[in-house]
Structures are given as structure tokens and as C-alpha cells.
Write a structure and sequence with these properties.
This protein is mainly alpha-helical. It has one domain. Helix content is 67%, strand content 0%. The protein has twelve helices and no strands. Helix 3 crosses helix 4, helix 5 packs across helix 6 and helix 8 runs antiparallel to helix 9. It is globular. It starts with a helix and ends with a helix.
């Protein structure tokens, strides 16, 4: 399904979210991130993180500094605004790179932190995820099981962003997400393509990732008459 016409309406941007995070970032947050690996190579990590805040294109490949501390930051169960800022930077870099072991879980953490940081950050997350869905960087193009979560991330941030929502965009994203899940099920179990997706979801996003997706779906996917909305609510146990 070609989503280009829909995604173009969201003003896709590779750097919009990074720039929003940069405006929230402090030297203390950078230093805390740099020291996450028990302080190992902290200065190298700090320099690499600072570079990420000013580069003109996000990297396709990540060297060890800062990859290790970005991974650790992406796993945070955040309890403060500073932790959400750190996790958001980590996740946006990781899902762009040819790295994530569980891109669906990393995307869940990105969306969760964007929502927690407020409407403006959520809008920039929408634009960034739309860019990722449009260009499918890293392993997204070949990962049929993870791709629906990227589309879902676009949908949830669009529904939560301070923008004038077009019902056609909403329904188009919902249709695409449902179709992508069914395509992933058909690839995973061609002899039973109509099975419930719960096991595939958990295998793809992990337990913690799925808890995040369920909570956000419950928060954003309010009741609607559309068949696809009802299907998504059922799949994510919010019906």
C-alpha cells in the first residue's frame, strides 16, 4: 500500500524531532547519558552524543560510542522529564540506524516519551516517524513484522498532535496498519494467516514493548465506527 500521499500531508522530516530534542537537552542530561555504561569511555560517548545534536543527517551506522549508551538509555523506564528527553534522543537515533534488535519496542519507547513531553514534541515525533515510514531506513523495509508498529506510531502521534486532523489520513493509516499486520501474519504462518496476532506482536515488540503499545493504543484509539479502528482496538486489547 502506497502511503506517500498520506504521509506527505504530515510534513515528513528527518531532523524535526532531533531539533526539538536539542532544544530540551542540557549538558547534565548529555553527561548522564554518557556515563550510563558505568562511566566507560564517558568522554567519547559525550562527544558523540553532542555530535548527534548538530549533524545534518542522522547516521545510518552507529559506532560503539555512542551506540552502547544509546541502547541503555532506550531501555529506561522513565520517571522524570530528563529521562524522557534522553530516551527520546536515543530511540530516534536507533530507529534510523541499521541497528535495532527490536525496532518495534524502540519505537514504542520513542512514542511514549514524545507523548509525555507534550503536544509540540508529539507533533515533531509524528513528522519524524512519517519520514521513517516513507523512507524505511535501516531494516524497516525488510522487516514485515515490525513495519506495522512504525505505521501505528505515525497514527498515534497524529491523533495526539496539535494539528487539524484529516479523517482521510486517519482512516488511511488505520487501513494500512491493519493490512500490514495481516501481511506479517501471512508471512509468519502462511497456513493460518487469519490467526490472532497476539503471539506475533509479543515476539516482535517484546513484553515491555507490547505493554507500552497497549497503553498508548488505549489512550489514543478512542471509540470509532470504522472497521479498522475496531480491529486495532481488539488486537491491542482495548475494545
Amino acid at each position: 500500500m502506497d502511503l506517500t500521499p498520506l504521509l506527505d500531508q504530515l510534513r515528513p522530516s528527518e531532523l524535526a524531532l532531533r531539533d526539538a530534542v536539542r532544544s530540551l537537552m542540557t549538558a547534565e542530561i548529555v553527561l548522564d547519558m554518557a556515563c550510563l555504561d558505568y562511566g566507560e569511555k564517558a568522554e567519547e560517548h559525550r562527544f558523540a552524543i553532542e555530535e548527534l545534536l548538530v549533524v545534518h543527517h542522522l547516521p545510518e551506522q552507529l559506532p560503539w560510542p555512542p551506540r552502547e549508551v544509546l541502547e541503555l538509555a532506550s531501555y529506561h523506564r522513565c520517571e522524570s522529564e530528563a529521562e524522557h528527553i534522553a530516551r527520546l534522543l536515543a530511540c530516534l537515533v536507533l530507529i534510523r540506524a541499521d541497528y535495532p534488535q527490536q525496532p518495534a519496542a524502540t519505537t514504542a519507547a520513542l512514542v511514549e516519551s514524545a507523548l509525555e513531553l507534550g503536544p509540540e514534541t508529539t507533533e515533531e515525533a509524528m513528522r519524524y516517524l512519517a519520514w521513517c515510514r516513507l523512507h524505511e531506513p535501516g531494516g524497516w523495509r525488510d522487516d514485515l513484522a515490525a513495519r506495522p508498529f512504525l505505521t501505528l506510531g505515525v497514527l498515534l502521534t497524529y491523533l495526539s498532535a496539535p494539528v487539524d486532523r484529516d479523517p482521510e489520513v486517519v482512516s488511511g493509516l488505520e487501513r494500512a496498519c491493519v493490512a500490514e499486520v495481516r501481511a506479517a501474519l501471512a508471512e509468519d504462518h502462511p497456513w493460518w494467516p487469519d490467526q490472532p496476532p497476539r503471539k506475533l506482536f509479543r515476539k516482535t515488540a517484546g513484553g515491555d514493548g507490547m505493554r507500552k503499545w497497549r497503553a498508548m493504543a488505549s489512550r489514543c484509539l478512542i471509540d470509532g465506527e470504522q472497521d479498522e479502528r475496531a480491529t486495532l482496538r481488539q488486537w491491542f486489547s482495548v475494545a
